[in-house]
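Practice problem: predict the structure.
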Amino acid sequence: MLVLSRHRDESIMIGDDVMITVVDIRGDKVRLGIDAPQEIPVHRLEVYQAIKRENQKSSQLGPSDTREIGN
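Answer:
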């Protein structure tokens, strides 16, 4: 893991397309602004993990599990 120190209004670049800027620092919370192309999904980790779990569950459904959808 790369660990960087940044002050408010300072940024880091990830590749050529993603810029992360420290927007605000209050106590133990840091607000980040993320500028990324629309085709790159950006989620908080807990949201990403929930999406991944739901996708995995839905990929394991069989034909009989989807009969009631749309009825």
